[in-house]
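User: Sequence in, structure out. Go.
Assistant: Echoing your sequence, followed by the structure tokens.
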Amino acid sequence: MGLTIAQKIIRDHLVSGEMIPGTEIALRIDQTLTQDATGTMAYLEFETMGIPRVRTERSVAYIDHNTLQSGFENADDHRYIQSVCRKHGVYFSRPGNGICHQVHLERFGKPGKTLIGSDSHTPTGGGIGMLAMGAGGLDVAVAMGGGAYYITMPKMYKVELTGKLRPFVTAKDVSLEILRQLSVKGGVGAIIEWGGEGVSTLTVPERATITNMGTELGATTSIFPSDEITREFLKAEGREEDYIPLASDPDAVYDKILHIDLSELEPLIACPHSPDNVVTVASLKGTKVDQVCIGSCTNSSLQDMLKVAALVKGCTIQPSVSLSISPGSKQVLSMLADCGALTDILASGARVLECACGPCIGMGFSPNSGGVSLRTFNRNFEGRSGTADGQVYLCSPETAVAAALTGEITDPRLLGEMPAIPFPNRFRIDDSAVLAPASEEEAPSVEVLRGPNIKEFPQSHPQLDTLSAPLVLKVGDNITTDHIMPAGAKILPYRSNIPHLSQFCFGVCDTTFPERAKQAGKSIVVGGSNYGQGSSREHAALVPLYLGVRAVIAKSFARIHAANLINAGIMPLSFKNPEDYDQLSQDDLLEITGVYAGMDSGEMTLVNKTTGVEVTLCADFTERQKAILKAGGLLAYTKEMGEK
């Protein structure tokens, strides 16, 4: 039986386990990336391990999230990350050099390599044939130290592409179509491979858009073949030597096969407040638009930006619309300036923002109250934009331009003929903003610089055999990490200060939660299905840990968040019978006895001491995960293993 592309890479990197879906495997990691919203904590964790130098082939730290330096906090964090990277062998991408996923694709990604990053959109690297996965910062720290990355062996899905995209129909529309078909939880437990004759019609930036958005399916990752299109991209980046061919075997077996005819797609748009709430752009014709944002790690490539420049050339955006443009990297911005496209963008009335995540994470450019904002981003969760009642839609750059020029949601095919956009034979290469680490000889003399906003890692607690605690918060389905630990300009500067950050925990759901949790001492949270979807931010586990949460019980969990909870020493438990969710109410006193035996048997009994009702919970943990929980989290477990 043949292998898929992902199975071939997994086979070549397998440290332990067998490639049997549903069982735990450990992978050797070639590359890691961090960004500054998660990186400070990841490097504090790495320092705690006491390993003098990273052991990966390449680790890179990017500054792309907290670039709004309105106080000392962000600048201090950046200085800390730069100094700790210089000391421990990590390359440092300076603020302004670009968004981690765009820059990594341009300068570091290699087909056939494994990559984990402390950002959920790390699967962008699948566009170049990498096995690239989002992970919690602690998992990244362990990988930087040479440790394996543990995941559940995924199922294999394949999307067969036929035909060719018509003008004004884009890779973003492909992403929205698969989200329409599968939903935000349709890829959970699976790797999605893109294949078929239609693949050869897509450039690497287009492929990267699709693998980036695969994160919103809940998939472990997404991946494209490495072919002549890949070779040409790497050649244009001056890295042709990094190319290797990668394809699935003709007799590879998939758990599910889907089909998309590219030639039949039309412009699509995701409505508030979920990436899978997808309709045709034409169906929303005439909807007034207040704001348009073009960029983010999803759609900020040179190809995207050149299309935008060509469409706005000689035009002026509507007076009622505010338009922002965020190029994905310094390379993209420089090439826009070199060819004159930047002038066309500026002349249209657009505001050109820094090469950073910016509005995508609520770091500035929030819409007006109740405003409609069309964004080429990957997420439109409620409140993520920084405006609580903002109405955020997700669309392609072409659809975004059409809205900016007309003042309303407009099918971009009505703009006329799509200008031809040639793909460059050579990108403008300037790595001066990527700082190499000190040599091993110099490293001991490098001082690590810490500011006053950097606080200690929260104290974890070994799981006891009996857990008795109140249910301090009950929430519904599809609770995102933005609900649990919001982002935005007011909150992100405190990512290295867990005590201060804690006051915002679950603020979208219940502003009284932090105080009530602290008063309880230890507590339990209950959620619905797909709990913890979205960003990989481990703060959504670390802050509840700090506030005393000892277990989260849900109908189902998103992969990365469940792993982050275990790493923090918090038990993620699921209802054996989902309808038992209705048997528990906020403020009920809950008790779980026989925790250790329950870990071994896979089931625990919860007694609602307030009502007397008993509920069976699933405790599906591997031997390693049981040991982590008993130790009180991955850091404590790693320390224990090192002392044996």
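User: And one key feature?
Assistant: The chain is about 30% helix and 20% strand.
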